[in-house]
Amino acid sequence: MTSPAPLLEATGVIKRFGPLLANDVAAFAVNAGEVVALLGENGAGKSTLCKILYGYYRPDAGQFAVAGRPTTILSPRAARRLGIGMVFQNFSLIPALSVWENVALFLDDLPWVIRPGKLGRRIKRLAERLRLSVDLRLPVGRLAVGDRQKVEILKQLLAGARVLILDEPTKVLAPQEADGLFRTFATLREEGYGLIFITHKLREVMACADRVAVMRQGRIVGTVSRQEANEANLLRLMFGDSSPLQSRPSRAPETAPGEMVLELEQIATAADVGTVVLRDLSFGIRGGEIVGVAGVSGNGQRELAEIILGLRRPKSGVKRLWGENATGWSVARIRARGVASVPEDPLSLAMIPALTVRENLVLGSGRRYRRGLGLDWRRLVTDMDKSAARLRFPPLSYGARAAVLSGGNQQRIVLTRELAQNPKLIVALYPTRGLDTRSAEALRTLLGEARAAGSAVLLVSEDLDELFAVSDRLIVLRDGRIAGTFLPESFHTDAVGLSMVGAANAA
To answer: What are the structural domains of the chain?
Structure first.
C-alpha cells in the first residue's frame, strides 16, 4: 500500500537576495496530521523558506506539489487557494475592529452582503475547537496576545488552509500562552492538518514536533524524528563543530552597588486605548545592578519602558536620572545622557525597514558620527564591528535592507547599535527573544560585563531561568502595579509564578 502524498512538498528551492544565498533547499515536505519544526540559528533561512512556501517570495528555482499535484505558488492569495496559510510574527489584525470583522476582511468566499449571525456561527464552531472563548464582538485590541494569535489562526483555517505555517509563534507569548498554543497544535494534528513552525528553542521542539528539520546557512542539514531528537544532536546540526552547550546560566557574582541611576516615585499614567495603566509605581536602580522584571505579557512592561525612555509622560509622580528630575526630559536628552533601549519589537520600534543595515545603525547616534555635512561611515563601521564581535554575532551585512533580515538578525542589529557606546543605563525588553542559543548566552554575558563596569540594567524577560541567573533583584508587574519584589535567596519559580498570576502573599 502506497503512502499518501505529502500535503505540501518542495524540491530544489533556491533564493538569493543580491549576493546573499538565502535558501538552497534540496527537499522539504509536511504530511497530513504532522507537526514539522524548522529549527536553526538566526539567519539560517527558516523564514525565507516559509515565505516562499506561502508565495510571499518567489524563488529563483524550485518545484512544488500540493497533495501530489505539481503547482506554482505565485502569491499569498494563490497559496491560500491551494490550502496554505501562514501566521507571521507581527499580526495583521486591525485593533479597533471586532474579532468577526477581522476574520471577515480576510475571507475571499463571502457574499456582497454579509450576515453577521451566519458568519459568527461559522467562526464560533472553529473557535471552540481552538479553545478561543471570547466574545466575537470584542475589538481585537482588547484581547490578550495569545487570543490574538488564535484569531490569526482562525482566519487562515476559515480561508481553507490545510497546511498552516507559523513563524516563531511563541515569540510574543508568555509560557502559559505557549502551552495553550501547543494544545491547539495537537488538536489540529488530530484533525489532519499539516503544521510547520519556525523556532530556535529546543524545548519547544521536544514538546510538540513530530519531525525536526534543521537549517544552517540556507540549507536543511538534517531531519530527525522526535524519538531520535535530543539536545546534543540538534545543537550539533544547528552549529556544526562549534555547537554551544545549552545549560542554565550561573548567577553573576555580587558587586557593590553604585550611585542611584534611576528612581521612579509614585508613577501613574493616564488611561489610553490599547495600553496598561501604571499605578503608584516606585522603585530604583543603582549602577552595577541588574533589576529583572517578570510578569505575564501585557501587564505594563512596555509602558514602564516608555516612561523611563521619555516616550510617555506620567500623569503623576516623579522620574529621576542620576539624581536630576527627568520627568519632562525629551527622548533625545535621555539618550544623550547614556540610556540605551532594546524594544520588544525591533523592526517597528527601532528600525526603518526600507533603510540598509548601515543606515539603521547610525539612527539615534546624535552627532557622534557627523563629519562636516556628511557622516563618518568608516568610524561607524569600526565601532559596530567591535560591538558585534563582543556579542559574538557574525559579521554584519551592511548593505542589506532591514526588511529582508530575519527577526533574530533584526534584533542583532538593534543590540549591536544600542550596546556599542557602553551605555550607563540599559532598558532591555525581551532582548534574547528571537536569538539562538549562542547569541542569547553572549548577550547575557555582555549584560553581566556592563553591570560589572558600573552600568545599570533593567531587564524585562519572559524566561524566569534567565531572570534568576542574571538579576540582583526581581520585581513582578501585574495590572500595572508592582505585585512582588524578590531577592536572590527567594528566586523560586513557584513563588514568583504565584505573584505573576495574582496569588496572595506570594512574595
So the answer is: 8-242 (3.40.50.300), 260-501 (3.40.50.300)
